[in-house]
Write a structure and sequence with these properties.
Largest sheet: 6 strands, mixed, barrel
Radius of gyration: 34 Å
Shape: elongated
Strand order of the largest sheet: 4-5-10-7-9-8
Distance between the termini: 39 Å
Number of helices: 25
Helix content: 40-55%
Low-confidence stretches: 196-207
Number of strands: 25
Mean pLDDT: 81
Strand content: 15-25%
């Protein structure tokens, strides 16, 4: 048996060497399909299937205050987090964080050796790391006193920051460092372990943090009343999730009784917010699950196209070897030995394709993580799925490689030897056509998906941002900590930076804002003084300096711009956008009217100007009501809140392609040596970032569709070429009896078009579901401001037409060469060969 197997392997290798075009095409087809599948499966396995890297991770849950129908999350109000922690009895501990990583300024050294740089930080409660059961590698956790409002300033360092900035100095514990220009005591260094336990849009990204500081949650914390926090819990031994959920259900109405105001914004027809819990792993992957599974399905579709293409090639190859198999059978070879020989050949192709696919996956998986703009929570990598990849390769290759060969064994050996190459069996012809139709249908689905995504992306890119992006550079700084808790110091810093940049060669205009268009900024309740009971009163608010609108190229439509005289101690002024004027004062001028930001007691601001609309959060979002006010007139409370949440952005309009990075660094350092520049980029890059998700999916889908289209062309070309070869005698007879060569050309082309039409019908019916799937994926990465993603999606019919036209062009190209070959057959030559 061993000797026979070795002989079969040697013979199969010789046969594959004799058909280099077939062998190379089959191996490359399998390698690309298997490599893409292995890469995507690695991500899905590591993200969705691998356990969290925490002790007893199955007892970790995410706690949320949310509608019952919403996906797993752990968003809580500050009041809700305090209420749950005080009234629940089923948790060993509960941890709370502010939910998002933010930029922080870290200063090291003193005197001339001092330098500052940007780090990423987040705030966590004293119970956060104990809940995860992650102990510091050095030092300790936060204490209860450190987590009280206005408690001692303590900080935990990440392992990476400890090694990078402090040279792995074990004496750092207990030392003082400067964070946001305030002195903090280092109480510990966390281990080099993924700590991604956050949810929401940055799911899994808390592992990016360089430092952690105490949350110090209290009623006066910024955003305390909103769903601005994230909570995790560890269940007590013996407590099930159902028991814990039952306890939370009993806390809902006591919570509403204590905080009745939440019923105003947490209610929908018939339902209100509930306290909910889910396994923490479900929370972490909730916003990427749909995208990853959809991408995996697309990759599997590509793999199926590759396998169908292999099936078409193996069908042709098996038919070509029908005479050889019949001759071996007539000489005494058993069908079992022949089947084994065919299996060996298929397995050799499978192993070669899998080996090449693993090489592709080795480099493709990290590239997928790096290139993706999605918040993929890469919690635990477990290496390449070698066993799974080999299993996929063997199963698919044997299935699509051996099925065509089985048709050969069902033929009568004597008949095959008598008729020679007079064509394959009816079953083989039907099998080849069925495989080709399936391939066309799958390629049609992938092409329609790519067309829909590309059309949506182009449609999104065509939406005007409201900003003149040419030669516009933006730079961000983080102004946090004690020195920037007041308006005067903040405004003085801003003016120093602007003055330092205004006279730099090539700089035309400079201004500052607390949130660029298409970037995060403050949203708050606001209303005209004469409309105190306005229902829809959430607006976007931006603090600006004089010249902001000219710098960004935004037109002032009525009134005047913010000016230097709009300073502290002067009557507060504001500007509104077109949308505010349309909603609040339809048919009249807003100039002279007053608006109020926040709650009672806030000083009204008089409107002095109206500006054109800009997009506030996303190109897909309709323009929102926007209020602009001078930095200099902000109250200290508002300034502290804005600086705590959002970076301050400087916008520079240049006369040409001027490199202003060094000038920005110098100007910021001259204004405050402890403030680093967090980011410098063009305004076009800001816009590109907002469409990164749709762009990524469009290119991925386009790549898959292009590969599927290429394989379909190869498969159709091979199938028609095989059929021309098998029907050479028939074509020769037709030509000898007077058939025109154009008729033969049309005959072969028509066979390709019939296969195309059948595949397009099947693929078109499946493609009807594509918009719903694409919409569910894009909704996680395109902010619609309350709208639906269907408002953005490109036309489904246009996508189907584009896909059909692409398939038609590919079919014509793939069919033309075999048709020309058939039309060029010489009748006498064809008859003589038989």
């Amino acid at each position: 048996m061993t000797i026979s197997l070795m002989q079969d392997i040697q013979f199969s290798l010789r046969q594959l060497r004799k058909a280099p075009a077939f062998t190379v095409t089959a191996v490359l087809t399998l390698a690309l399909g298997i490599g893409a599948t292995a890469s995507m499966y690695s991500v899905v396995r590591d993200v969705l299937l691998a356990p969290l890297p925490y002790p007893e991770q199955d007892r970790l849950v995410g706690l949320a205050f949310t509608f019952p129908q919403q996906r797993p999350n752990n968003r809580l109000t500050g009041a809700g987090a305090d209420f749950i922690e005080e009234h629940t009895r089923n948790f060993v501990s509960i941890g709370v964080s502010d939910g998002e990583t933010t930029g922080e300024s870290l200063s090291i050294g003193a005197g001339d050796a001092a330098h500052a740089f940007q780090v990423v930080g987040t705030h966590v409660s004293k119970g956060y790391f104990p809940t995860l059961a992650v102990r510091p590698a050095l030092g300790r956790w936060f204490t209860a006193d450190e987590d009280l409002p206005n408690g001692p300033k303590a900080v935990l360092l990440s392992d990476a920051l400890w090694r990078r900035a402090f040279s792995s100095d074990s004496k750092i514990v207990g030392a003082a460092i400067r964070v946001n220009e305030d002195a903090y005591t280092v109480v510990g260094v966390m281990p080099a372990l993924s700590l991604g336990a956050s949810g929401g849009r940055e799911a899994g990204k808390s592992s990016d943090a360089d430092i952690w500081t105490p949350l110090q949650l209290g009623p006066k914390s910024p955003g305390y009343d909103g769903n601005n926090f994230q909570a995790i819990g560890r269940l007590k031994p013996g407590v099930s999730m159902a028991q814990a959920q039952q306890e939370l259900d009993g806390l809902k109405w006591p919570y509403y009784k204590l905080f009745p105001g939440y019923l105003r914004w947490t209610i929908q027809p018939g339902v209100v917010h509930d306290f909910r819990l889910w396994p923490l792993q479900e929370v972490i992957v909730s916003e990427t699950r749909t995208s990853l599974l959809t991408m995996l399905a697309a990759v599997i579709a590509v793999l199926l196209v590759a396998c169908l293409n292999l099936g078409v090639m193996m069908t042709a190859r098996a038919s070509q070897r029908a005479r050889e198999i019949a001759l071996r059978t007539a000489l005494g070879a058993t069908r079992g030995s022949m089947l084994r020989l065919m299996m060996v050949e298929s397995l050799l192709l499978a192993l070669a394709g899998a080996a090449a696919g693993l090489v592709i996956a080795k480099f493709g998986t990290p590239l997928l993580y790096a290139a993706s703009p999605l918040a993929i929570p890469h919690l635990q990598g477990t290496g390449l799925p070698i066993f799974t990849t080999l299993a996929i390769a063997c199963v698919t290759t044997l299935l699509f490689g051996l099925l065509p060969a089985l048709g050969v064994f069902r033929q009568d050996a004597n008949r095959v030897l008598q008729v020679g190459t007079m064509g394959g069996s009816v079953s083989q012809i039907r099998l080849g056509k069925a495989l080709m139709v399936g391939q066309v249908a799958l390629a049609m689905v992938l092409l329609s998906t790519a067309s829909l995504l590309l059309g949506t992306f182009l449609k999104l890119r065509a939406v005007p941002s409201g900003v003149l992006v040419e030669r516009l550079t933006v730079a961000q700084v983080t102004l946090k900590g004690g020195p920037y808790a007041g308006t005067q110091h903040t405004e003085r810093f801003i003016q120093k930076v602007i003055a330092g940049l205004a006279h730099y060669p090539g700089v035309q205009r400079v201004a500052a804002v607390n949130g660029l268009p298409l970037d995060r900024g403050l949203n708050s309740g606001a209303h005209p003084v004469e409309q105190p009971n306005l229902n829809d009163n959430m607006v976007e608010f931006r603090a600006i300096t004089p010249g902001y609108f000219r710098t960004l190229g935004v037109s002032v439509l009525q009134g005047r711009d913010v000016a230097d005289q709009d300073r502290a101690g002067v009557a507060p002024v504001a500007m509104v956008n077109e949308e505010a004027a349309r909603r609040w004062w339809p048919g009249q001028s807003p100039l002279g009217h007053q608006v109020v930001m926040g709650g009672k007691g806030e000083i009204p601001m008089t409107i002095v100007g109206v500006v054109a609309n800009t997009r506030s959060n996303s190109l897909a979002e309709e323009p929102q009501v926007m209020i602009y006010a001078p930095f200099a007139q902000l109250s200290d409370v508002v300034t502290k809140m804005i600086n705590g949440w959002f970076p301050t952005t400087f916008a520079l309009r240049t006369a040409g392609d001027v490199d202003v990075a060094a000038a920005i660094e110098r100007a910021v350092s001259a204004a405050d040596v402890d403030i680093p520049v967090a980011k410098i980029e063009t305004m076009q890059a800001v816009i590109d970032h907002t469409v990164a998700g749709p762009s990524f999916f469009a290119w991925i889908a386009g790549g898959f569709a292009g590969f599927a289209l290429l394989l379909t062309m190869i498969g159709l070309f091979g199938l028609l070429s095989y059929q021309v070869t098998q029907r050479t005698r028939e074509i020769g007879v037709r030509l000898a009896l007077g058939a025109q060569r154009t008729q033969v050309l049309a005959f072969v082309m028509r066979r390709g078009l019939v296969l195309l039409g059948t595949g397009l019908v099947v693929g078109g019916m499946v493609s009807v579901m594509v918009p719903r799937i694409v919409g569910s994926v894009l909704s996680d990465y395109v902010y619609m401001g309350g709208g639906t993603i269907t408002q953005l999606l490109s036309s489904t019919s246009a996508a189907l037409i584009a896909a059909a036209l692409a398939m038609l062009a590919a079919t014509l190209v793939a069919s033309f060469l075999p048709a020309m070959r058939a039309a060029g057959i010489e009748p006498m030559e064809a008859l003589r060969t038989e």
